[in-house]
Specification:
Helices cover 42% and strands 21% of the residues. The chain is built from 12 helices and 13 strands. α4 runs parallel beside α5 and α9 packs parallel to α10. The mean pLDDT is 94. It binds iron/sulfur cluster.
């Protein structure tokens, strides 16, 4: 059996940086409070929890004077203000790519643009971006949701429309939404705020799907970018499995393949990928050849 590993795949720059800052903070021996899960990977969060990470639902749950960690996908400015009021020591793990979306959102809304955010309205990154909007904003997830949005249904021409994207969206979708929005606006300003790690990983998994008999995508079921990788493989017609850890492998499914592709979400740590490759090799009954694509 041949095992092909997507390249690049797994931990992106932003999540690696967040994990390193967390590990550094936890080495001090004090508990560190993360608002919301800091990494969309339950296994990695469990590993850090053993070292003193406490995941809390909101800043209200962070004790006075505690160490608070802001995840890679950022938070609204109001959250930071409330942490400061509690005299928390803040470790800001916001990824620079997310910071860029927040900055663009603030700039566009301050300049009078109605802001469209292409993303998942329930995703914490989108909640954080909305916190930077000073005017009006609409979150859309597709061209259909753009057409059914209140601003599109109830307005004639829109004088100033801005468009940014959650960092993990697909380029193709952003281009489709931009084209549809252009038909309604007198002026449209679009910032492609999809991060390069996302773009590269999506491209790599598409290339992998073209060569493999089946692709296993490993990553948290709450990870948006892992879900996108899984969808790209499915859309290509190549069979795909989405698992969180090697223990969830469907052994028979693996046995039936000659060439297995492995891809991982941007929040999947290296150790989970290595465990997966070892498990596939074991199922293959011999040392499968692993190569990077
Ligand atoms: S996926 Fe992109 S935006 Fe998100 S943390 Fe990684 S590098 Fe940053």
């Amino acid at each position: 059996m041949k095992i092909l590993r997507a390249e690049p795949t797994g931990l992106c720059f932003g999540v690696r940086r967040a994990i390193e800052s967390l590990e550094q903070a936890l080495a001090g021996g004090e508990p560190v409070y993360a608002i919301g899960s800091p990494i969309h990977n339950p296994q990695e969060v469990a590993r850090l929890a053993d070292r003193g990470l406490r995941v809390v639902e909101s800043e209200a749950d962070v004790p006075e004077n505690a160490v608070a960690f802001i995840r890679a996908h950022g938070v609204a400015p109001a959250v930071v203000e409330r942490l400061k009021e509690k005299d928390a020591s803040i470790i800001d793990g916001t990824c620079p790519f997310v910071r860029m979306v927040q900055t663009r959102a603030r700039e566009l809304s301050e300049a009078g643009y109605h802001l469209l955010i292409l993303g998942d309205e329930k995703h914490p990154e989108v909640a954080g971006i909305l916190g930077y909007v000073t005017g009006k904003a609409t979150v859309i997830s597709s061209v259909a949701s753009l057409f059914s949005s209140t601003i599109f249904r109830t307005s004639g021409r829109i004088p100033k429309l801005g468009l940014v994207s959650q960092t993990t969206q697909e380029e193709r979708l952003l281009a489709e939404v931009a084209k549809a929005a252009a038909g309604k606006a007198d002026e449209l300003r679009v910032y492609n705020t999809i991060c390069h790690a996302t773009r590269e990983r999506q491209q790599a998994v598409a290339e992998l799907a073209a060569k493999a008999d089946g692709v296993i995508v490993i990553g948290g079921h709450d990870s948006a970018n892992t879900g996108k990788l899984h969808r790209i493989v499915n859309d290509s017609g190549c069979p795909a499995q989405w698992i969180e850890h090697a223990g969830q492998l469907d052994r028979q499914w693996v046995k039936d393949k000659n060439t297995i592709g492995v891809a991982a979400g941007a929040s999947t740590p290296d150790w989970l990928i290595e465990h997966l490759i070892s498990a596939i090799r074991e199922i293959a009954g011999r040392q499968g050849d692993v190569s990077n694509e």
